[in-house]
Specification:
Layout (H helix, E strand, L loop, with lengths): L1 H11 L12 E6 L13 H18 L2 H8 L1 E12 L8 E11 L4 E10 L5 E15 L7 H8 L9 H10 L14
Antiparallel strand pairs: 1-3, 2-5, 3-4, 4-5
């Protein structure tokens, strides 16, 4: 995955058109032999890794990565979830569509969709993931969302959907070092 990331971030992303901060980024991939599991389709864990590559592609193309580097900021995934609809097989080409959904007072939320052309030529969603991301400073501490908005502008619209906000709250671990809630008895 390291080489795929370098390929996109250092070469391919720089050759694509620039994006606005809140535009949909489309990043093209192909299912490689190293992406497969025992069932000969893309391994579920690989989806998350490829989503990382697509997010970096978006950050390079919309100029956010350059701004982050100059300020000493970097993104981290706090939570992520994915739902699968169809499998991706060896050598299949697919596109990841990445879009900022919104933010709350602590995190930024993104949607990423794995799509391929359907029988009618329209995009068909194979998998859909949601990411809850935080931003940290290399010098220590977090970057408040208010500071991100001051740097990049506010997202137009009504805010994040209620179910995403609820999901973000439900999956957040406590800030203390105490044991996290568990279903184990």
């Amino acid at each position: 995955m390291f080489f795929r990331t370098l390929l996109h971030v250092l070469f391919l992303s720089r050759r694509k058109p620039d994006l606005g901060h809140y535009d949909i980024a489309r990043t093209n991939f192909i299912t490689l032999p190293t992406d497969l599991d025992i069932n000969r389709h893309m391994n579920n864990g690989v989806y998350f890794s490829i989503m990382d590559v697509a997010r970096f592609d978006m950050l390079v193309r919309n100029g956010v990565w350059r701004a982050f580097r100059s300020k000493g900021w970097y993104p981290v995934v706090a939570s992520e979830t994915i739902t699968f609809r169809k499998s991706l097989s060896l050598w299949q080409r697919f596109t990841i569509e990445s879009k900022l959904v919104g933010y709350d007072d602590k995190a930024v939320y993104m949607e990423q969709r794995f799509v391929r052309p359907g029988p009618d030529g329209e995009p068909e969603v194979y998998a859909q993931g949601f990411i809850r991301a935080r931003f940290l400073r290399k010098s220590g501490g977090t970057v408040p969302v208010s500071e991100l908005i001051a740097e990049f502008g506010a997202l137009e619209g009504e805010g994040i959907p209620e179910w995403i906000e609820r999901w973000g709250a439900d999956v957040a671990l406590p800030a203390t070092r105490a044991a996290a809630p568990s279903v184990w008895h």
